Amino acid sequence: MKVDLLDLRREYNSIKNEIDEVVFNVISSGRFILGPEVEAFEKELEKHLSVKHAIGVGNGTDALSLALAALDVKDGDEIITTPFTFIATAEVIALKGAIPVFADIDMETGNMLPAEIEKKINNKTKGIIAVHLFGQPCDIDRIKEIARRNNLFLIEDTAQAIGAKYNGKAAGTWGDIGTISFFPTKNLGAYGDGGAVITNNDEIAEKIRQLRVHGSDKKYHHVSIGFNSRLDAIQAAILRVKLKHLEEWTRKRQEIASIYSSRIKTVKVPFTAENREHIFHQYTLKSRRRDAFREYLKDNGIASAIHYPIPLHLQPAFSYLNMKKGSFPIAEKLANEVLSIPVHPFLTNDEIEYIISVINKWKE
User: Which residues form the active site (predicted)?
Assistant: First the structure.
């Protein structure tokens, strides 16, 4: 049996008629950039997340860049974040001329440790970018308290965690700004690039809306140097369809994760911390012999992925920070052990049973 990590064709086929209709309608309308479809999606996303403002932008990386610009990050500012995430989280800090400062993570969840964040704060620290890794919220209440006490901004990178909740409140809505990615592989994915910035702050929302269209508050009037980062109408229309199904798809992911966690015995299954609703963007196992384990799964037709094989402080792009191996031991250990397996909501029962059977024959 062959099992893909994700199957977007199955997803499309399940909503084909809805998708085809809305795409045709957008093409027929002649409105392709921003416009009524984007505005309608923004309103629906606000309602879904119980947040005051949702602003559609070009992609999740742009969402982070726009957030930093709206918060007036300058050269030399230090921004604390995690070394165990996709590079975009720290890349946008560097692109602003600021300095990414890494804080080590929790061995069980892979999320940032509040105590480690506190150790990194100094008079150059401007803010924190907290990541909700793999779909599980980090200790966002404690991180928010640290930010408040030290007069720091708090951005939540919610690229992997749309719909996840901490104490019943949506990830991305705790800090000053939340950022979302609609990359096709995300739980709510477009058919191309897309992203959003969410906030409960009116002033920040107004800045983001201006910055996404070249710093313009009205046509040909530019109040700041901005970006060209706008959500396409076709993507918004597709996301509106998918948003209606997101809760159902999330429940299915959670059901599959629960089955895996109760029945996989040979490797370490994910840990969900208290007061979290984990939406399982990834179902990530840990194995002391990860590379051999991955080859074993491949030989048995099961796709997998390593999220992430090299912590950011060891990436060549960040060599100028002069971070050596051993600087963040937990991040480095996880990078050698983690392996994500299929958990998408269109897995069949036979595929789920096959994955469990194969994994339970593995000799750790």
Answer: 186
Return the closest-CA partner of residue 173 out of 69, 48, 268. Answer: 48
Which pLDDT band holds residue 6 (cuts at 50, 70, 90)?
very high
Taking only the tens place, the pLDDT of each residue in 37-77 is 999 999 999 999 999 999 999 999 999 999 999 999 999 99
186 among known catalytic residues = yes
C-alpha span between 237 and 37 (Å, rounded): 6
| pLDDT number for residue 364 | 85
How many Å apart are CA 62 and CA 158, to the nearest integer? 13
Domain-located, residue 3:
no
Q: Which of 96, 186, 242, 286 is catalytic?
A: 186
Q: How far apart are CA 146 and CA 62, in angstroms?
A: 26
Q: Where residue 279 falls among pLDDT bands split at 50, 70, 90?
A: very high
pLDDT reading at 80 higher than 90: yes
134 inside domain: yes
Please state, in angstroms and rounded to a whole number, the distance separating the CA atoms of residues 78 and 39. 35
Across the range 171-195, mean pLDDT stands at 98
Query: For 265, left (φ over 0), alpha (ψ -120 to 50), or beta?
Result: alpha
Report the interhelical angle of 60-70 vs 88-95 (nearest 10°). Answer: 40
216 and 255 co-located in one domain: no
Q: Are residues 281 and 309 in the same domain?
A: yes
Dist CA 51 CA 173 (whole Å): 7
Q: Which residues contact 177 (CB under 8 A, 6 or more apart)?
A: 67, 70, 71, 153, 154, 155, 156, 197, 198, 199, 201, 204
**Residues present in the chain in total:** 364
The mean pLDDT of 3-11, rounded to a whole number, is: 98
Q: Residues 6 or more apart from 297 whose CB is under 8 A from it?
A: 303, 304, 339, 341, 358, 359
Tell whether the model's pLDDT for residue 114 goes beyond 90.
yes
Same domain, 233 and 253: no
